[in-house]
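Researcher: Final request for today, and then I'll write up notes for the group meeting. The sequence and the SMILES for flavin-adenine dinucleotide follow.
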Amino acid sequence: MEKINNAPLKDYTTYKLKGNVKAIYFPKNIDELKEVIKSNKKYKIIGNGSNLIISSKYDGVLIKLKNFDKLIFDDNKVIVGAGYMLSNLNTKCMEEGLTGLEFTFGIPATIGGAIYQNAGAFGFNISELVSNVSALDENFNIVNLSNKDILFGYRDSIFKHKNYIILEVTLNLKKETSKTIKENMLKYINLRKEKQPLEYPSAGSTFKNPIGHSAGFLIEKSNLKGYSVNDAFVSDKHANFIINKGEASGDDIIKLIKIIKKKVKEDSNISLELEQEILE
Ligand SMILES: Cc1cc2nc3c(=O)[nH]c(=O)nc-3n(C[C@H](O)[C@H](O)[C@H](O)COP(=O)(O)OP(=O)(O)OC[C@H]3O[C@@H](n4cnc5c(N)ncnc54)[C@H](O)[C@@H]3O)c2cc1C
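Model: Predicted protein-flavin-adenine dinucleotide complex:
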């Protein structure tokens, strides 16, 4: 099976983190996936690493499902493998004349990672498009979950609470002209470019928006724009983004997160909750 020992994290995280992971595996099918899990006590499934902060303490391996890349169109449905990138899926759907997914254009994630997190933007969430998901449970049984079974919430799904591995996703889309879909995609990507510091590596929004508040506004109110720990900076463009200006490690980002949380709690009496995930 394809495996890289001592793999550089900069190649597997959108933060382009400094440091290495013991090993990363790329199983080709469910049998290989089971084999890696059985032979490694500590492992983490990753999509595109666009929501992950990996600490130097992490001593497990990573499993990347890039070979789970099936794509089947069936009328207004699309069946897609967990490792398929959202950007490519958007392009394929546009070519097929299927609309619904455009709000995700520009999220550098896999469909598996997007389902896990119930990714959302511009008032839409991926949950609205999901018909069902097939997953591997802790006992290596393949389970088929309907939208209701997945218990989607704000950046939440059953996959955050159960040790299931998403294998395949069926989305319900609607017919539209490719021209209109392309225009929608461009509209959303331009909005992202306007508001987000896409010129630097990041993992998107650092914190969830507390009910009735904007995390970015609270961080800005605490005068933390531009604040840094080594090369990890609070973005000047969007305070809820931490950016890597060069050699930031997961540990630098974790330190910066602690400082932001403490300062916002002191200044606004609000406890910010992390949207990104720390692996340690
Ligand atoms: C520039 C930028 C913009 C972003 N914009 C948005 C946005 O608009 N909206 C938004 O919601 N997020 C956004 N994000 C954050 C991020 O892209 C999402 O959280 C995304 O869903 C993560 O997907 P991923 O494939 O990279 O998963 P990873 O970061 O690799 O993993 C995230 C979690 O998902 C789990 N996971 C991944 N695949 C599977 C699987 N097959 N089975 C089980 N668990 C799995 C991992 O174990 C991990 O716990 C942005 C990030 C960046 C860098």
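Model: Residues 14, 44-52, 65, 82, 107-110, 112-114, 116-117, 119-121, 159, 165-166, 198, 202-204, 277 surround flavin-adenine dinucleotide (CB under 6 Å). Residues 2-64 form a domain with the Uridine Diphospho-n-acetylenolpyruvylglucosamine Reductase; domain 2 fold (CATH 3.30.43.10).
Researcher: Thanks, that's everything.
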